Amino acid sequence: MTGDDFRLTPQRRAVLDVVTASHDHPTAADVLARVREVVPEVGAATVYRTLSLLVEAGQVAELRLGHGSPTRYDRTVAHHGHLLCEACGSVVDVYVPVSPELLEDTASPHGFQVSTYDLRVLGRCAGCRTDRTAPIPS
Ligand SMILES: [Zn+2]
Ligand SMILES: [Zn+2]
């Protein structure tokens, strides 16, 4: 925790604990449901505001998957990639070594200066590969 500008009240602590304990990149609604198992009286606005504060404070990462899907929250703030299942929406962290030199070599012919990159691998998770009833996305 850095400085006094982000006070960890019990409700905020509960939100941070829920995200830290999660392995599944929960949505804000998922986080709210889990926090309410511990702090039943917590308000939705408090949880959502706390998530924003935790992201600003660098304690939680935001994962935007686009296509109108809700923002997910990631306990892993170090740079990493994601395996994203197109059938069930599960998200798994992966670490793919991509060298800064490779990125520069790829981008510099376009006159492009790299600030960061975002690695997302789409496909089917182990569970969905064996489940023949899972809907096939169009
Ligand atoms: Zn799946
Ligand atoms: Zn992640």
List key phrases describing it.
138 residues; alpha+beta; Arc Repressor Mutant, subunit A; Dna Ligase, domain 1; 3-stranded mixed sheet; 36% helix; flat; binds zinc ion
Written account of the structure:
By secondary structure, this protein is of the alpha+beta class. The chain folds into two domains: 1-77, Winged helix-like DNA-binding domain superfamily/Winged helix DNA-binding domain (Arc Repressor Mutant, subunit A), CATH 1.10.10.10; 78-138, Dna Ligase, domain 1, CATH 3.30.1490. Helices cover 36% and strands 14% of the residues. It is built from five helices and five strands, in the order H-H-H-E-E-E-E-H-E-H. The chain has helices at residues 10-21, 28-38, 44-56, 100-107, 126-130; strands at 61-63, 72-74, 81-85, 91-94, 120-123. A three-stranded mixed sheet has the order 4-3-5, with no helix packed on it. Strands 1-2 form a two-stranded antiparallel ribbon. Strand 1 (61-63) and strand 2 (72-74) form a beta hairpin. It is flat, with a radius of gyration of 18 Å. The protein starts with 9 loop residues before the first helix and ends in an 8-residue tail after the last helix. The relative contact order is 0.13. The mean pLDDT is 89. The structure holds zinc ion (ZN) (2 copies). One zinc ion is lined by residues 25, 63, 74, 76, 80, 82, 93.
